[in-house]
Amino acid sequence: MASNRSATHVPPVPGQRDTEVFGYGGPRTDEGPWEEWNPTEESVRPVRGRHRVAKQRGGLARSSTVLGVGVIAAVGAGGMASANTGKPPVSISMPDLPSVGSLISDDDEQEEVPEASTTPLSTLGADSADTPQGASDAGEALRARIMAQAEQQQDQIASKAAAEAEAAAEKAAAEAAAEAEKEAEAKAAAAKKKAEEEARKKAEAERLAALAEQYALPTSSYTLTSTFGQAGPYWSSGYHTGLDFAAPTGTLIKAVHSGTITAAGWDGSYGYKTVLTLDDGTEIWYAHQSSISVSVGQKVTTGDVIGRVGATGNVTGAHLHLEVHSGSGGSGIDPLAWLRSKGLNP
């Protein structure tokens, strides 16, 4: 900038004032005296300050001002567009723009460059939905939605686990109930079988008791000495064919059941023998008697005396030899078992 020559100093003239003073209707007594001001290079030099920046060469300073304004407008328009379109804003950081006066300074000295601003310009033209509060609300909403989905999934897993546990418990209960029912059925079957067995035994006892009233032991005051099938040299067949009741000679011999006398008399090794035929055809043989009290064809009832104990025939002592045959001299039957089947206990 060109410097001006120093003007000739004119001393002030007291009392002379321009009557056309700006802002006042006439001369003021409280002002003055005034001196004429002649600007020089030193007087118009700008004061150096911390807000001055380095001089931009090539006219870049003025053009950058226009560029900055355009960038601000573009970013603002972009922010408004993002607010309108609903897309999230992009944060852009740019340095603070200096004032226009500092950019067009002619000072050649280098000054400090201000630090870049970290304030994002994307918030220009943004509405409340794009502000940090809106972003925070959106984040909270997303977080709440994610937590709700997680809780829902956990509830579903818990519900599934509870359903599986309930199904397992029901299955276990069903199996336990089936097992208990099976055990109950087994116990019931065992109890039924036991009851049936007891009933059968009771019925058999009653039957035997009734038969005992119809049947009687062949003698009294006896001792069993030889049983059916017993082997030994005393018998011609090699084994004993009857049941021996050892008793004193003369002991009474009775009919074991009602029937008919079909034989009475001497029979070799049997001595004196009597045969009693029952109504079902079973034959009862009484041998080795000392005497016979009945005759052939005579009807007798249970307990009637038919003879006396003796020692006739092939014997070693006084006793009653009793044989049981299955009808008309058939095969021999164990007399002890037969008597017990009739409710008697020899």
Q: What is the CA-atom radius of gyration, in angstroms?
A: 74 Å
Which ranges are low-confidence, i.e. pLDDT below 50, for 5 or more consecutive residues? 18-22, 77-85, 121-126
Task: State the end-to-end CA separation.
Answer: 165 Å
Structural class: alpha+beta
Keywords: Coiled coil
Protein name: M23 family metallopeptidase
Region (Disordered): 1-60, 79-139
Domain M23ase beta-sheet core: 239-329
Topology (SSEs and partners):
Layout: H1 41-44, H2 60-85, H3 100-103, H4 132-214, E1 223-224, E2 243-246, E3 252-254, E4 259-266, E5 272-278, E6 283-292, E7 299-300, E8 305-309, E9 319-325, E10 332-333, H5 335-341
Antiparallel strand pairs: 1-2, 2-9, 3-8, 4-5, 4-7, 5-6, 6-8, 6-9, 9-10
Protein name: M23 family metallopeptidase
InterPro entries: Cell_wall_metabolism_enzyme (IPR050570), Dup_hybrid_motif (IPR011055), M23ase_b-sheet_dom (IPR016047)
Keywords: Coiled coil
Textual characterization of the structure:
With 346 residues, the protein is α+β, with helices and mostly antiparallel strands. It has 3 domains: 48-129, no CATH class; 131-214; 223-341, Distorted Sandwich (Glucose Permease (Domain IIA)). The protein contains 5 helices and 10 strands, in the order H-H-H-H-E-E-E-E-E-E-E-E-E-E-H. Strands 1, 2, 3, 4, 5, 6, 7, 8, 9 and 10 form a 10-stranded antiparallel β-sheet that branches. A hairpin with a 6-residue loop joins strand 9 (319-325) and strand 10 (332-333).
